[in-house]
Write a structure and sequence with these properties.
Number of helices: 2
Distance between the termini: 66 Å
Order of helices and strands: HH
Number of strands: 0
Radius of gyration: 21 Å
Shape: elongated
Largest sheet: none
Oligomer: single chain
């Protein structure tokens, strides 16, 4: 009996540049859509008939999201930011 042979189509050691690009595009599109949906969900907190909040709360939320976007930019440009996630109103 011979050993089973695994055949992997279009897979090269380390992955090809085109497959890495395809993976990046697929994940970037999906994750960006999810992030936009999450931000829109936070925006629904603006219904003053359902929620009570102040300007300080709004500033904290916006600051937390802005800081995270800056960290994302840092990651995408090659430097490593903190992985810590902390948010309190």
């Amino acid at each position: 009996m011979s050993d089973p042979v695994l055949i992997m189509a279009d897979v090269q050691p380390g992955g090809s540049d085109s497959s890495k690009r395809e993976k990046f595009v697929k994940l970037a599109e999906s994750r960006t859509v999810n992030a936009i949906k999450a931000i829109r969900t936070i925006g629904k907190l603006g219904n003053r008939n359902a929620y009570e909040y102040g300007e300080a709360d709004v500033k904290k939320i916006v600051k937390a999201l802005t800081n995270e976007i800056e960290e994302m930019k840092t990651r995408l440009t090659g430097t490593k930011p903190s992985d810590e996630v902390d948010f309190k109103l």
